[in-house]
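Researcher: Good morning. I'm working through a list of sequences from a screen, and I'd like to move beyond sequence-only analysis. For each chain I'm collecting a predicted structure so we can compare shapes side by side. This is the next one on the list. No need for commentary yet; just the structure.
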Amino acid sequence: MWLEAREEARRRDGAAFDLKRFHHHALGLGPMGLDLLRAELTRKD
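Model: Good morning. Structure tokens for this chain:
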């Protein structure tokens, strides 16, 4: 799920995708279920 969400974010953001920022955001979300995590990681800010 993590890799799928990361790739979706990479496709969505294109050249603006920042791996470090993605991981920082994801880890900052804290503990949650996978469905909610996927939704948070793939939504456009």
